[in-house]
Amino acid sequence: MSDDSIRPVPQPGILDIAPYLPGKSGAPGSNAIKLSANESPLGTSPKAMEAFRTAAEHLEIYPEGSSKILRTALAEVHGIDPDRIVCGNGSDDLLHLLAQTYLGEGDEAVMNRYGFSVYPIITKAAGAKIVMVEETDYTADVDALLAAVTEKTKVIWLANPNNPTGTYLSDAEVRRLHAGLRPDILLVIDSAYAEYVIAADYSVGLELVGEASNVVMVRTFSKMGLAAARIGWMVGPAHVVDAINRIRGPFNVNLPAQLAGAAATRDVEFNARLKEHNAKWRDWLTAELHSNSMRVVPSQANFIMVLFPDAEFAAKAFETLRERGLIVREIGPSYGIPEGLRISIGSEEAMRGVAGILKALVKIS
């Protein structure tokens, strides 16, 4: 008979980590429209779907271990040396690997207050301390980030554009941040929403990665129609790529994902339609909702963050939308913005539905 008082014990700090909270979905079989996870409103690239089906003919074999098929496509389209690319099981996989590689006991990682909620999880899991820095009007503050750097700082996490706010830093500001860092601090530019940015002063980060020895850029396919396939990719200096490749899983991207990702990368027409649709309805919804009772923070991503007078009003708005079959993201529990809701850009019908419901709610209140 075993003694239940004696059992395997997690490493110190693991049970202090709050788990990641995904956006809510509708009940199985419901017709609810999910606007809580920033997924593609136009589905998946037809070319990616066909490539995924083709992979079904080869499910008995291991995938090529370095994701060469996918790296080749990414290098071709984005003008990158394929040897500087690492692919992963979603960008979360790569973020975890970066934390595991460059953070440890006694180290610190710096992030802005409302940055992606995965950053504290992976930092603490590596035994390091997360340092959260206050923002200026829901936008990362370069001076505040630099002021938070100490001799213990090893990593800066920067989502650009940021989730859940949709705000971004210009190329000049990102470069100013990098210029203020010691060369032994790794700047991680998380460009998960880069496909949707239309701001002229934005840079995805590739040029800076090419110029510096302490910058990496992380991307994902999840926002462009392949969330279910779990594909992420990273570009970095040769020494970072070498370190990550030493500890990543040898077959961490499955063959269907590799083939679908390569096809999606080359399907520039579908990606352009997705970007155009998003810009049109993001700007339309922002204009429709922004008022004395609702503030929409300007967004460059495929979602908007709406701020209500208080947390009670935000909760009422969430429930009202949910009751009408529109599920958005509550951002109080994960991000500490209880008066806000994050709304993914969806179909025209969904956007008009959200606007009509929230505007009517404001008039009633």
Entry keywords:
single chain; 365 residues; alpha/beta; Aspartate Aminotransferase, domain 1; Aspartate Aminotransferase, domain 2; 2 domains; 7-stranded mixed β-sheet; 4-stranded antiparallel β-sheet; 13 helices; Histidinol-phosphate aminotransferase; aminotransferase
Structural description of this entry:
There is one protein chain. With 365 residues, the chain is an alpha/beta fold. It has two domains: 24-44 and 269-364, Aspartate Aminotransferase, domain 1; 46-267, Type I PLP-dependent aspartate aminotransferase-like (Major domain) (Aspartate Aminotransferase, domain 2). The protein has 13 helices and 13 strands. The protein has helices at residues 46-55, 68-78, 91-102, 118-125, 142-147, 171-179, 206-211, 238-247, 255-266, 268-289, 311-323, 332-335, 348-364; strands spanning 33-34, 85-88, 108-112, 129-133, 153-159, 186-190, 215-220, 232-235, 295-297, 303-307, 326-327, 329-330, 340-344. The strands form three sheets. A seven-stranded mixed beta sheet has the order 2-8-7-6-5-3-4, with helices on both faces. Strands 9-10-13-12 form a four-stranded antiparallel beta sheet. A two-stranded parallel ribbon has the order 1-11. Helix 6 (171-179) links the parallel strand 5 (153-159) and strand 6 (186-190). Helix 2 packs parallel to helix 9. The longest helix is centred in the last third of the chain and has 22 residues, at 268-289. The chain is globular, with a radius of gyration of 21 Å. The mean pLDDT is 95.
